Amino acid sequence: MSNGGFGSPGKLRRHSTNRDSDDRIQYLLRAEEQLLHSISTHVALPKVLNEICSAIDLQIGNVVSLISLPGDDPGELAAIAGNAALFGLYTFYSEGIADENEVPVGFLEMFCSVDRSPNAGELQLIERAKCLIAIAIQRHHDGAEKGNRTVRADMAARGRLPESPDSLN
Prior knowledge:
It is built from four helices and three strands, in the order ααβαββα. The protein is of the alpha+beta class. The chain has a domain at 44-159: Beta-Lactamase (2-Layer Sandwich).
C-alpha cells in the first residue's frame, strides 16, 4: 500500500506532531513579544492583564484566569470564587505573584470545568505568565511613581506644592 511517498504513517504523525509543537512555540513567542510590547509602551494595566489571561486561557484551554491586585476587595474575590463553583468550575491553580524582590504584587487564580491540576508543561506556561504579570504591574507602579514625581516637580516649580505627597495619589 502506497502512502504517497511521505514515509510510514507513524513517521508522518510524528512529523506532524513536531510541526504542531514548533508552531505552538512560535505562537507563544509571538504572543509573549506582543505582551512585552504592550507593557513597554505603557498600555493600560487592566488591558495588559486581560491580554495575559486571554493568552494563558487559550494556550491551556478549558480554563478561565483571574488576576487580582493587593488593593482589590477580598469580598468581591470570594464572590467570584463562589460563583465559579456555582457554575461547576474547579480551582485549577491559585498562587500569589511576587516581583523581583519577592514583594507580593498580585494573585493568579485559574478555574477549570474539570477537577484537575496543571501538568508540567502548563506549569511552565503559568510561570511565564506570572513573570509577565509581575513585570506589567511593576512597570505600571514605576510609571505611576514617575508621573507623581513629575507632577510634584512641576507644582514645586510653580510654587503650588501640596502639603503632603499622598494628596497626589
